[in-house]
């Protein structure tokens, strides 16, 4: 299997020289330090993929099944609403039953939750509810409730499925980026044993769906990069001066990315930052491809031939998809705020906007006002976490805790010296996250210094999921929002491990020419990479009890709370 370092970085190829020696083919740009010819330009534009049915899908399915077993194990435990499940699970069921969100009974605190756990689902009022997030994530939760009922397994089923599928998509995306099944598998395995991603896959909150659709969008853009470059490579056969190739207007993978971005926006609005940065990144990829073919004025030509179609296929498709996710709200006159337009006649240019959509725009304004209101800014929460500390796990969040479990209770030994407790703490696997900090720094260096586009994917996704939150530190924000960052952190770690691993075969110069063989560096690199992956798995296993609501004696729980800020 090829290592990531064995793949030639095609973005390092600049504009083709104005002239070449007559004996050099057009597709060759010279020789390396050992006197070997560089691969043809076709191969640099589109390096060959490893064969899928040798071990590609076997590794992918094996790791995905491992992740699924972890995530679905005792998924219905604890049998209660955990943290914000109390909102999203009920909103999801309301969408499923009525087609729009309704308020639920609140004559005494928590009465609706208690009735649902007893099996009584008649807990909804006739009045609509203002929900402060779009509906896609709640409809996904509702799918599980439709299949398995309004119970803890039902409302957690699709989050666990989405978390598992995120790992499958990430494996395939990293494999395509690196042309290495090994590196793709490492990325999937590391994400499978990250504590934060694991916990978010086992609770009915929205952020795991956001992470899933964003990883799908990223994977589609990586596929589009290959799709576009393979077609540009074929244009070399035309032997056209400048090698610019034909304009590629219809790019199906970009349209798929636009749909995924639209669905991500339909989960939470902060997906907009990913749309912006990945849109710019994919445009930069097109410029690099055009330059590699020797096109003059590649920036301006790409702006016309690639930039405009990219905007239409990514941004416009995302907007259309996002709007379509509000179909249920638009079709139900009883939805919250649906009657706004009928009560407020339009003026000026708004007269051309249909009333249903004008009401929907006003609904969005109300949601935005909620998120930026003094009520939110003045709110406090014991688990509020500054985003500056997220990469180093400064302040994880607790989703559930049962304290003071008496000795002799189930799971707590009768002769235990202290009381026991059970918790669900959303803590990232520390060794993975801390290594990720260094990997992201290396990603910045290698992306800028060596123009390795793969590290750009990792760094761009991480920045889009992290930096915007610094604008909202005047309100309570939480560490679990970082679940959109960890897949891209894992990509950076996996790519760096590929560099440590080294190439599978090393060229050796002898009198008779160049031969290839294994090296001590490969052996040492394999040992180092293997040791790191094993340590991350063991670190996750050690945290397992506090990720899964296991009953622990107080000293055993405290031994896993490495810092006071984790409590």
Structure explained in plain terms:
There is one protein chain. With 567 residues, the protein is mainly alpha-helical. Among the domains are: 49-205, no CATH class; 384-567, no CATH class. 55% of the residues lie in helices and 7% in strands. It has helices at 41-45, 52-72, 85-98, 111-118, 136-148, 152-178, 181-192, 195-200, 207-234, 252-265, 272-292, 298-324, 327-331, 340-343, 355-372, 374-377, 430-449, 453-466, 486-501, 520-547, 554-558, and strands at 102-104, 124-128, 397-405, 420-426, 506-510, 513-517, 551-553. A 3-stranded antiparallel sheet has the order 3-4-7. Helix 3 packs across helix 5 (136-148) and helix 9 runs antiparallel to helix 10 (252-265). It is globular. The two termini are 44 Å apart. Residues 1-36 and 241-245 have low confidence and may be disordered.
The structure class reads mainly alpha
Low-pLDDT residue intervals, each spanning 5 or more residues: 1-36, 241-245
How far apart, in Å, are the first and last alpha carbons?
A: 44 Å
Major sheet: size, sense and barrel closure? 3 strands, antiparallel
Total number of beta strands: 7
Rg on CA atoms, Å: 26 Å
- N to C succession of SSEs: HHHEHEHHHHHHHHHHHHEEHHHEEHEH
Q: How many helix segments? A: 21
The residue fraction in helices comes out at 40-55%
Shape: globular
Enumerate the strands of the largest sheet in spatial order, edge to edge or round the barrel.
Answer: 3-4-7
Percent of residues in beta strands: 5-15%
Mean pLDDT: 86
